[in-house]
Amino acid sequence: MNMDAAAVLKLFRHNEGLLEGHFELSSGLHSAGYLQCARILQFPDYAEQLGQALATRLANLKPTLVLSPALGGVVLGHEVARALGVRALFAERREGKLTLRRGFQVTPDDRVLVVEDVVTTGLSTRETIGVATACGGSVVAAASLIDRGDSPADFDLPFVSLARFPLPTYEPSDCPICARGEVAIKPGSRILGR
């Protein structure tokens, strides 16, 4: 399967991964749309194909390690690492801070590729970049399945996304769905560390 933007979005629609409603995103912003990557990544064949598609676009940067934020980036990061033939690690949230799990190591020799499932504000990606650089690793690029932000993500380093699919977001105080009295649900994983 060709994994261009149209094919990626078709996968989301076909597997009910594009949800409509009233959502509080991991960033705290509200949106009428939510991209549920787990609906697609639950299928190993799709996860493998998506990982290979990202790896193909980033192999020229010669990463030696893929680092992903838990929970959303773990499966995809593993598949990208497998396609590249490198290690896959993840950072997890503890006491509100993203950190490496004890026993994991990023070294100054590592050329780190940060892989996330969906980028909205880029906060998780930036935090993961921070984890890698704090350990002395050199971050060579960031990547995601979908860039859903209002404007294209910018991390001051190469960024690759398989699809750009902007979905409007709102501060809770400016959310038109809240103004109608509808309660937002929290489908994201960042709230798990709160």
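Second entry:
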Amino acid sequence: MSRVRGKNTAPEMLLRSALHRAGYRYSLHRKDLPGKPDIVFSSRRKVVFIHGCYWHGHENCNQGGLAKSNQAFWTDKLAKNRARDRRVTKDLKAAGWQVCVVWTCSLRSIRKISDTIARVTRFLES
């Protein structure tokens, strides 16, 4: 578990690269915002989180299943992660920020990647 990265993951780098190529400029992991969003568009007051399906308990996703061992621990851990995600989103919205969540399963195939990038671009332009 100590080797699992929290920042600059492959899905995050893929999305950041695509957004940069499209001309968007952003900040990363701003510590002054709740939850330290992965990508921050300060001038637009919009943030993007890239959530790992397993770590954030993505429902109805084959990547988001529960571990086979120590299930009581993992059930509690993932429930706390989901509660934290809801609290962070609520705090950001209360502070006037708009939030977009991208799940890593949406960055697994070429078709899904292009759909996800289009969705994030629409979010930024709305």
